[in-house]
């Protein structure tokens, strides 16, 4: 019986004072931080028959905004062009406020650059689709993105670069 009690006291999640020391991350809020929709060639653009070429760029950022509070933002830039000119341009910065408790520092970056964007993306995708539709065009439905794979590719590229920098270029 004494062994069970001492084992319970050694478990940090079961502290006698009731303090929960287990790691946790929670989404507190999500919001449009910045949105711009430009339709520079209206109304002529609605007469164009050429198929548009759409360029989509993503960027992810995470910033500490308070004690145990982080803002993760997903920046999406979309440009649609035809031979006649620009059809529309969208700049969206969609963000989420995350509370973090007892998470090791080495686990924060994978969460902020892979998991948090996965949580935010469906909502940002809807904002883009609605903005394009409200601009008088068929809704633009962005393809789903595997943020975890993109993060792993970045990690592997950074590791390969470190190895390349450590390898001697030649013999002296």
Structural class: alpha+beta
Compressed to H and E, one letter per element, the order equals: HEEEEHH
> What separation lies between the terminal Cα atoms?
68 Å
Cα Rg? 23 Å
Q: Quick check: average pLDDT?
A: 87
Number of domains: 1
Largest sheet: 4 strands, antiparallel
> Which range best describes the helical content: under 10%, 10-25%, 25-40%, 40-55%, 55-70% or over 70%?
25-40%
- By DSSP (H or I, 4+ residues per run), the number of helices equals 3
Q: Which architecture would the CATH scheme give at its second level? A: Roll
Sheet with most strands: strand arrangement: 1-4-3-2
Number of DSSP-assigned strands: 4
Highest-level CATH class: Alpha Beta
Could you name the CATH topology?
Bacterial Protein-export protein SecB
Overall spatial form: flat
Beta-strand residue percentage: 25-35%
Low-confidence stretches: 1-6
In short:
With 172 residues, this protein is of the alpha+beta class.
Can you describe this structure?
- Helix content is 34%, strand content 35%.
- With 172 residues, it is α+β, with helices and mostly antiparallel strands.
- It has a single domain (27-164), classed as SecB-like (Bacterial Protein-export protein SecB, Roll).
- Strands 1-4-3-2 form a 4-stranded antiparallel sheet, with helices on one face.
- Helix 2 crosses helix 3 (147-166).
């Amino acid at each position: 019986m004494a062994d069970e009690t001492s084992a319970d006291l050694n478990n940090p999640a079961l502290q006698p004072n009731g303090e929960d020391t287990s790691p946790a991350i929670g989404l507190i809020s999500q919001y449009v931080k910045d949105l711009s929709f430009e339709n520079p060639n209206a109304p002529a653009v609605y007469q164009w028959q050429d198929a548009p070429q759409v360029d989509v760029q993503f960027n992810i950022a995470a910033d500490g905004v308070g004690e145990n509070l982080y803002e993760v933002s997903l920046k999406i830039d979309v440009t649609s062009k035809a031979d006649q000119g620009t059809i529309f341009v969208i700049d969206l910065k969609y963000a989420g406020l995350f509370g973090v408790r007892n998470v090791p520092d080495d686990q924060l970056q994978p969460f902020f650059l892979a998991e948090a964007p996965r949580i935010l993306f469906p909502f940002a995708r809807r904002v883009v689709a609605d903005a394009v539709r409200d601009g008088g065009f068929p809704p633009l439905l962005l393809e789903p993105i595997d943020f975890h794979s993109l993060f792993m590719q970045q990690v592997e590229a950074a590791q390969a670069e470190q190895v390349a920098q450590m390898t001697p270029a030649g013999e002296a």
